[in-house]
């Protein structure tokens, strides 16, 4: 590639690089710097406080509870959503009657806005008139206060998230399945391989790049999904369903503590960077079929 071609390549990349820097890298650096300052008060500018915000974060019990909630939320929703997506993709990829309708049914939750989904599930979870409690009453069981009980609030959010995301991930698996080489399955049929052997030795290894892509998106979603908390629980009861991004929002816009919100954001960016390093530095070397 000569210098003219290199210049043309950089000029083509320039708009994307400017947008990426303006809305991702520069704000991230500014947020990290702001975490070392206190809040500006009145006409006084913010002053440098060093690691005081991080010391306060270390002693903040709510932060550790929120971080545990988010970790547990990701540990449950990510693998369950991926497994369900794979099962649904294998199902709708088979030759079954009305598979177009089944695909539409699986994909419909994905196109719904998160606020609309939260309102739908709010009706499901309502203690007195909710769908779930009415079903339980029909079978002689007592209803639950799904969103008001600390033991049920976070699992209730997990169920809603899995319901919404599994259909979205299914589309990627379905596209990957339809792109696989049929000659491999024909060879397996000649060898009289079982369905489990075909899935384990052919389908699953070939789907690993797609699985890595889905895993990355699922983990990011587990830390950035916050819309449903506004409608359903607002982090309650007693922070039982509070997640890291919503806690950042509370400190920034409810408590007007932008310095501590910047500190929390810096911690979340570090967590996501570590997850990205694991995914791209370790898992990416193991996912490609050889």
TrEMBL record:
Subcellular location: Cell membrane
Topology class, membrane: Multi-pass membrane protein
The keyword NADP is annotated on this UniProt entry: no
Gene Ontology CC: plasma membrane
Ranges for domain ABC transmembrane type-1: 67-276
CDD domains hit by this protein: TM_PBP2
GO biological process: transmembrane transport
Broad class of where this protein is predominantly found: membrane
Record keywords, A-Z: Cell membrane, Membrane, Transmembrane, Transmembrane helix, Transport
TM region(s), chain numbering: 7-26, 71-92, 104-124, 152-175, 202-223, 259-283
InterPro entries, alphabetized: ABC_transporter_permease, MetI-like, MetI-like_sf
A Pfam family this chain is assigned to: BPD_transp_1
Family according to the record: Belongs to the binding-protein-dependent transport system permease family.
Name of the featured protein: Lactose transport system permease protein LacF
Organism per entry: Parendozoicomonas haliclonae
Gene: lacF
């Amino acid at each position: 590639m000569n210098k003219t071609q290199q210049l043309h390549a950089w000029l083509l990349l320039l708009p994307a690089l400017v947008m990426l820097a303006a809305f991702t890298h520069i704000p991230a650096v500014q947020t990290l710097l702001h975490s070392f300052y206190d809040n500006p008060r009145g006409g006084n500018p913010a002053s440098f406080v060093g690691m005081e915000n991080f010391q306060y974060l270390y002693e903040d019990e709510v932060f550790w509870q929120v971080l545990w909630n988010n970790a547990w939320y990701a540990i449950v929703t990510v693998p369950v959503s991926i497994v369900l997506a794979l099962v649904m993709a294998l199902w709708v990829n088979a030759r079954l009657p009305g598979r177009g309708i089944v695909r539409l049914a699986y994909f419909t939750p994905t196109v719904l806005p998160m606020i609309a989904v939260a309102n739908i599930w709010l009706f499901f979870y309502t203690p007195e008139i909710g769908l779930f409690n009415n079903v339980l009453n029909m079978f002689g069981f007592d209803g639950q206060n799904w969103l008001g009980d600390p033991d049920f609030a976070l699992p209730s959010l997990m169920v809603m998230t899995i319901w919404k995301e599994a259909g979205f991930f299914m589309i990627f698996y379905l596209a990957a399945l339809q792109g696989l080489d049929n000659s491999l399955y024909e060879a397996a049929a000649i060898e009289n391989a079982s369905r489990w052997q075909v899935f384990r030795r052919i389908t699953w290894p070939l789907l690993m790049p797609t699985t890595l892509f889905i895993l990355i998106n699922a983990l990011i979603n587990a830390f950035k999904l916050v819309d449903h908390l506004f409608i359903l629980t607002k982090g309650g009861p007693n922070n039982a369903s509070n997640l890291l991004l919503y806690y950042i929002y509370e400190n920034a816009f409810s408590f007007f503590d932008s310095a501590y919100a910047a500190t929390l954001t810096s911690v979340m960016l570090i967590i996501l960077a570590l997850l990205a390093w694991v995914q791209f530095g370790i898992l990416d070397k193991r996912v490609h079929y050889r």
